[in-house]
Design a protein that fits this description.
By secondary structure, this protein is α+β, with helices and mostly antiparallel strands. Helix content is 32%, strand content 12%. The strands form four sheets. Strands 5-6-4-9 form a four-stranded antiparallel beta sheet, with helices on one face. Strands 1-2 form a two-stranded antiparallel sheet. A two-stranded antiparallel ribbon has the order 3-10. The radius of gyration is 25 Å and the shape is flat. The structure holds zinc ion (3 copies). The site of one zinc ion has 7 residues, from loops. The site of one zinc ion (ZN) has 7 residues, from loops.
Length: 322
């Protein structure tokens, strides 16, 4: 629900009838989380009756997770029968083919034991990791109200015109002339429209950091990447082998350049902590500047160090000019 004049009165009313509802302030909105599907339906009707500006988030009836660690040739039917035998109410399984690593997305019916899926460490006699499914980052803007992070399908807000800011849909705008000055209805500045990524209100794309990508506490393999007290040398000599998988399972970051590989062979005391920091920096840059990622790929095709540097420099210069 968008925070308006009487938002608090509406919250009071929701609490009186549905006391188990959780409401959180997220800035311009209050995120209302009903305790049951029935409450969800009733609160939806209440907000409509009160003419509160809001958009709907479907009541989650399923849990979506990603299973990592299975070969890409794994039959989806095998995963399904294995999960069912472990007591999970599987609704759908699909192979995420766009991903460079073999990943399977699993939807299971929400129930008390459904969250146990995160504890799953073994499937089809293989070690696996289960993480929450996340959509690919991307900003969505609503055609109806021109606010962000929802679509017009779920929008129950007063329409706002992109051109003139009045309460009608942009397509119904009586102003048919080309606009002389661009004006933004989200930040009130001139020079751009609310649909432009130049707008300071336009959502920034979240770039994944290593920590965000995989929940650390769930898997000891991941702990290794971020534990500051563990040196790379220690990892290799298996001094802390108790909670570690064998060395072969060390996840190799895919965008590591050949020169870096060379470096960790040359320095046996090279700290893993530092190594992780470098990879993190590189990961951050390559996700923001795809030119750099392409450069890293091209660099691996040549053995000439000067040429490598040149490729890298050109990509850096191009990225800076953007
Ligand atoms: Zn909307
Ligand atoms: Zn208009
Ligand atoms: Zn703006």
């Amino acid at each position: 629900m968008r925070i308006g004049k009487n938002y608090n009165l509406i919250l009071q009313e929701i609490y009186r009838s549905y006391p188990n509802t959780v409401s959180k302030n997220t800035g311009s909105y209050i995120k209302i989380q009903p305790a049951s599907a029935e409450d969800h339906e009733n609160i939806k009707n209440l907000l409509t009756a009160k003419k509160a500006d809001h958009y709907l988030i479907e009541y989650p009836t399923v849990i979506k997770v990603v299973i990592k660690g299975l070969p890409s040739s794994t039959d989806v039917a095998d995963i399904e029968s294995e999960l069912k035998s472990k007591g999970f109410a599987v609704e759908k399984i699909s192979h995420l083919k766009k991903s460079p690593l073999p990943l399977f997305m699993v939807q299971i019916k929400r129930s008390e034991n459904a969250v146990n899926i995160y504890e799953l460490k073994n499937l089809n006699y293989l070690t696996v990791e289960v993480v929450p499914f996340r959509r690919r980052p991307g900003a969505s803007q609503c055609y109806n109200c021109n606010y962000f992070n929802h679509t017009s399908k779920t929008c129950r807000m007063t329409p706002r015109c992109l051109k003139c800011g009045e309460n009608h849909k942009t397509q119904n705008c009586p102003t048919t002339d080309r606009l002389k000055t661009l004006h933004c209805i989200n930040c009130n500045a001139d020079g751009h429209m609310a649909s432009s990524c130049q707008c300071p209100r336009f959502p920034k794309l979240k770039t994944k950091t290593k920590k965000e990508e995989t929940p650390i506490s769930k898997n000891p393999i991941n702990q290794r990447q971020v534990r500051p007290d563990v040196s790379y040398a220690n990892v290799c000599s298996n001094k802390i082998e108790k909670q570690m998988a064998p060395r072969e399972e060390t996840p190799k970051p895919s965008n590591q350049s050949p020169s870096e590989k060379h470096q960790d062979n040359a320095e046996p005391n090279f700290k893993f902590e530092k190594f992780a920091t470098y990879i993190n920096e590189l990961n951050n840059l390559t996700s923001k500047f795809p030119e750099i990622l392409r450069a890293l790929e091209d660099m691996s095709k040549t053995n000439n160090d000067i040429e490598k540097l040149n490729i890298f420099l050109i990509a850096v210069a191009r990225s800076c000019n953007k």
